[in-house]
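Case study B.
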Amino acid sequence: MTDSFFERVYRVVRRIPAGQVASYGQVARILGAPRAARTVGWALSSLPEGHDVPWHRVVNSRGTVSLDARGPGGAIQHALLEEEGVVFQEGRIDLKVYGWAGPDLAEQRALRGEDAGV
DNA sequence: ATAATGACTGGGG
DNA sequence: ACCCCAGCCATTA
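Model:
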């Protein structure tokens, strides 16, 4: 299906502005599935080639990179975020400062795939 | 349909 | 504040 849960995850992540971050749980929550944080992470691990999803803007609830920080993935994510102006302190991001506020209500409905009652 | 997987999360020690 | 444990969920084999 072209509108799988994964697709919806990508749609939400694409809304995260540069310089800000969201947690896996937050994305899941926006999609109406507050307990599907792990699935969100899995969706990002399954990103197809040539995508335009800013996956690096998604971190865990502690404000740290979930990918092995010493591995290539973690280093890349860390670098991409800093390029956008996100500051790391002791290896973690202050979500109060860089945390994405999230889409407004109307947009949330759209992201969940609900119609505005056409 | 059952079982296993994975870039999570919150609570307890 | 940090580490560990058990629960949760969509997708795949």
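The radius of gyration of chain A is 14 Å. The remaining cases will be described in the next quarterly update.
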